[in-house]
Write a structure and sequence with these properties.
This protein has one domain (about 10-190). It has ten helices and no strands. The chain has helices at about 10-20, 25-35, 50-55, 60-80, 85-100, 115-125, 125-140, 145-160, 170-180, 185-190. The longest helix has 25 residues, at about 60-80. The chain is globular. The mean pLDDT is about 90.
């Protein structure tokens, strides 16, 4: 964690900006605009790209993935442009929390993987690319989006240290723990052998 040098009120402001960006429910917005129905009534009821894909609309799923990632990246890039490293990490964490617990949806948001990747790609692009590759490899082998997400999260702090971004270690641990908490139901289904496979109609 970088040294906290930014005034407390400014850090609170960046936390609010990050949370506000992260809480934009692009999956639900796109589903309504594109006439796909209410995501809460589809598949897992999750607002992320994986559940949007269950509508059968690949474009909507791809747009949700990109936009959910972008809101995490934008929070980081804005804070980096106008504030210090401490504000950057505060904004990053707040954006992830905003996606998972958006006030507009009664604090019932997504699992956070796209935003997680967006944060890392903007914060430390080598770590972000390594996390993307880890997700792809784990998801391809298991055919489960959740396994890809959990594996990428588990390796993220190792990638941060390996690529020389040790100052982001505490943030990485916090994001990883939250990812595992958000995927706790998936973990239970994985253990029970009932987790849905990619392409199966039955989260990110």
């Amino acid at each position: 964690m970088p040294i906290l040098e930014t005034p407390a009120l400014a850090l609170i402001l960046w936390a609010a900006i990050g949370y506000g960006l992260g809480s934009i429910p692009f999956g639900i917005v796109l589903a309504r605009i594109m006439g796909l129905g209410n995501l809460r009534d589809i598949g897992s009821g999750n607002i992320g790209a994986t559940n949007v894909l269950r509508t059968g609309n690949k474009l909507a799923a791809a747009l949700t993935l990109v936009l959910d990632g972008a809101k995490g990246a934008v929070a980081v890039l804005l804070a980096r442009q106008f504030a210090g490293p401490d504000a950057v990490q505060i904004a990053a964490l707040a954006a992830f929390i905003g996606h998972c617990y958006p006030i507009w949806l009664g604090f019932r948001g997504g699992k956070g993987m796209a935003t997680f990747l967006g944060v890392w790609l903007a914060l430390a692009w080598p770590v972000g690319l390594a996390c993307c590759a880890t997700w792809l490899a784990a998801a391809a082998v298991s055919r489960m989006s959740s396994v890809g997400s959990l594996t990428a999260a588990a390796f993220s702090t190792a990638w941060a240290v390996l690529f020389g971004y040790g100052t982001a270690l505490i943030l990485g641990i916090a994001l990883t723990l939250m990812m595992y908490w958000r995927h706790r139901e998936n973990i239970s289904r994985i253990k029970a052998g009932t987790e849905s496979k990619i392409g199966q109609k039955s989260d990110m």
